[in-house]
Design brief:
The structure is a single chain. The chain has one domain. It contains four helices and three strands; from the N terminus they run ααααβββ. The protein has a three-stranded mixed sheet, with helices on one face. β2 and β3 form a beta hairpin.
């Protein structure tokens, strides 16, 4: 697990990993914005700006299928789908419940 996390930090986030003792980690968590690898990837993905869906048959078909699925369920009628580009992490989809926004990476 540690090796996988280290590789993710280096490859996806382009940062140099460092191991912190649990006590220091908990102190930092309580007093400053320190995040796990997964939390950092979600933050980067969440903060990425919208991207216009490419005008390709595949992109239009995926978008149409997703909209059709949402149309079938009444409780999803408030969800807004936003495609994004530029996130460096491995997160492909992020749902912000408070804003009712489903962000999908264009890849």
């Amino acid at each position: 697990m540690i090796r996988q996390t280290t590789n993710t930090i280096r490859d996806s986030l382009s940062k140099r990993p460092a191991c912190l003792p649990d006590m220091l980690w908990q102190i930092l968590r309580a007093h400053c914005p320190i995040r796990t690898v997964e939390e950092e990837q979600q933050k980067q993905f969440k903060d990425t700006k919208p991207y216009i869906v490419p005008d390709t048959t595949f992109a239009r078909t995926v978008n149409r299928a997703l909209q059709a699925c949402f149309a079938l369920l009444k409780f999803t009628d408030h969800i807004q789908v936003v495609y994004i580009r530029g996130s460096t992490g491995k997160v492909d989809v992020y749902f912000n419940k408070g804003q009712g926004t489903l962000k999908i990476h264009y890849r």
